[in-house]
Amino acid sequence: xxxxxxxxxxxxxxxxxxxxxxxxxxxxxxxxxxxxxxxxxxxxxxxxxxxxxxxxxxxxxxxxxxxxxxxxxxxxxxxxxxxxxxxxxxxxxxxxxxxxxxxxxxxxxxxxxxxxxxxxxxxxxxxxxxxxxxxxxxxxxxxxxxxxxxxxxxxxxxxxxxxxxxxxxxxxxxxxxxxxxxxxxxxxxxxxxxxxxxxxxxxxxxxxxxxxxxxxxxxxxxxxxxxxxxxxxxxxxxxxxxxxxxxxxxxxxxxxxxxxxxxxxxxxxxxxxxxxxxxxxxxxxxxxxxxxxxxxxx
Length: 298
Ligand code: ATP
Ligand code: MG
What we know:
alpha/beta; binds adenosine-5'-triphosphate; globular; binds magnesium ion; Rossmann fold; 13 helices; six-stranded mixed β-sheet; 298 residues
């Protein structure tokens, strides 16, 4: 398929999952089992499409790197076992490792807690020409911290600043921060891998039953399931408050891993293609230099 056509198709494919204005968004609008009109017998074809997508992505990323102007920040958020790691691994598999930086954000260290919550993430923002991936991010500050308010109590914030408005204030700060990034040439795209509670249970049981997956299981994750409804509320509120045109959320159905990966790849292609990247053209002086070098070599 022609490149232009693939880009057009990717754009159309991700549209149902892209949220650019959260006002009317409800999590129930997106079904975790959705695969659009693709059935499981289409899986082999979907895998081929993904492979083509990955090649196109590699080409776009090469231009991004050569041009050295824009940077791309991809943020992944999800409940445990939703497939963040797998999606990142597959979609980025064709990319030059030099042009890509992945960071995982776990519970903050004591050094992190001596700063504002954005500090540790700011240090990890992608350089120009690079794709940066955040596996979890500052959004945890409106998710796990909201569900477990005892975490907030340990953040060493001056008491007077912790009011009932804190979540709205965080949303506002995040919106402003992402606007700032976009005004400086960092393209922000956010992914919520939307897995169902049923499918999460299945994947946890598989981690317990399959010796090769045992290492992935943590009983803390299973315990966290007890807060499922609170998390869903927090995710919905987060998306409603932070989905914007310049920095959209993609709510990706995550019960079928092959479909999740297709959507993520298409969204990244769409984001890169929107930048109209080109290899830098060299000037007259450089052309003379090239001609002289060629003569010398011959
Ligand atoms: P894995 O798939 O390997 O389990 P993971 O992203 O779940 O990947 P964990 O080692 O389980 O990695 O650690 C992530 C944990 O850190 C999550 O429970 C997450 O909620 C927590 N965390 C991340 N950011 C913060 C934060 N700002 N405050 C408190 N906890 C946080
Ligand atoms: Mg975990």
